Amino acid sequence: MDPLLIAILAIGLLHRDVLCYPTRDESEDKIIVLQNEEMEPTILECDYEVEENPKFITVKWYRDEKSIYQWIYGTPPYAIPEFKNEVDSTYESSTEPSKQYSSLALINPTISTTGDYKCVVQTSQHTFSSHQRVQVIDLRNYTLELSHKTIHNETQLNCTVTNVYPRPTITIISNDMDVVKREPMVYEDEEGYFDGSAVVAAYDTDDDPDAYQCVVSFEGYGKNLTTVATSTSAGVGHLDFSLWLFCFLYYLLSKLKVLI
C-alpha cells in the first residue's frame, strides 16, 4: 500500500479516537424545588472509569457550555469566581482518590441554576463526557385566582397566575361541553419569573350548577397548582327572576282590580 495513503488513514483514525469519546446523557431532569428554609446541596454525579495509574485526571463542569468548576487530580478543586457562591468546592464525592472531587455540589439555588450541565473527564488515554439537565421550580410567592362572570347563559372564566418559574401551562376545565377557549397569554418579567392568564367562555342551558377548575402545570414537574370555582346556571337564575317578577305583577294587578 502507498505509504502516503497509510499515513492519511492513520491520521484519520487518530482524529476519530480523539473526537468520538464516550458520552452519557441522564434520561430524567433533576428537579430543584426552591424553599424558604436552608436547602441541602444538589449533587450532580460524574460517573467514569479511569485506567490504572493514570498520568493525570482533569474533571471540568460546565453549565450551558460555560465553565463553572474544575478539579485536577492532586490539586485542590476550584470553582470559577463567578460561581463561587453557587458551588461547594469542598464537597467530597468519593473515598476513591481518582474521584474524590468529581461531583458538582450546587448550593444557594436560584432560577438561574436551571440549565444543561456537562462534566468532561480527561486522562492521558481517554476523554469522557456526561450531561444532566437541572430544572428549578419556584412557587414560593405565587398567586392563583379563578374568577367568573355570568351573563344569561354564558359564563366568562378568567384564570390568572403570577410570580412562578418556569413558564407555566394554564388550563381551564369545565363540565360544560360547549366551551370556547382562547390561547393563554404568558409573560416573563424583568427578574425572569412568569405571569399568565387564560380566558374561557362556557355556554350552559341546563339547570345544574357548573363547576370549573384552573390547572397550572410545569413541564417535567409532577405537581400542579389548582383552584376551583362553582356557579349556578345563568339560565336558571334569569328564569327564576322572570317568574318571580311575573307573579308579583299579577298579584299586584289583581289587588288593584279588587280595590277598583
TrEMBL record:
Tell me the first and last residues of the signal peptide: 1-20
**Domain (Ig-like) ranges:** 22-129
**The UniProt record lists the keyword Oxidoreductase:** no
Q: Does the keyword Cytoplasm apply?
A: no
Database matches in InterPro entries: Ig-like_dom, Ig-like_dom_sf, Ig-like_fold
Source organism's superkingdom?
Answer: Eukaryota
Q: What are the protein's UniProt keywords?
A: Signal
Q: What is this protein called?
A: Ig-like domain-containing protein
**What is the scientific name of the source organism?**
Drosophila yakuba
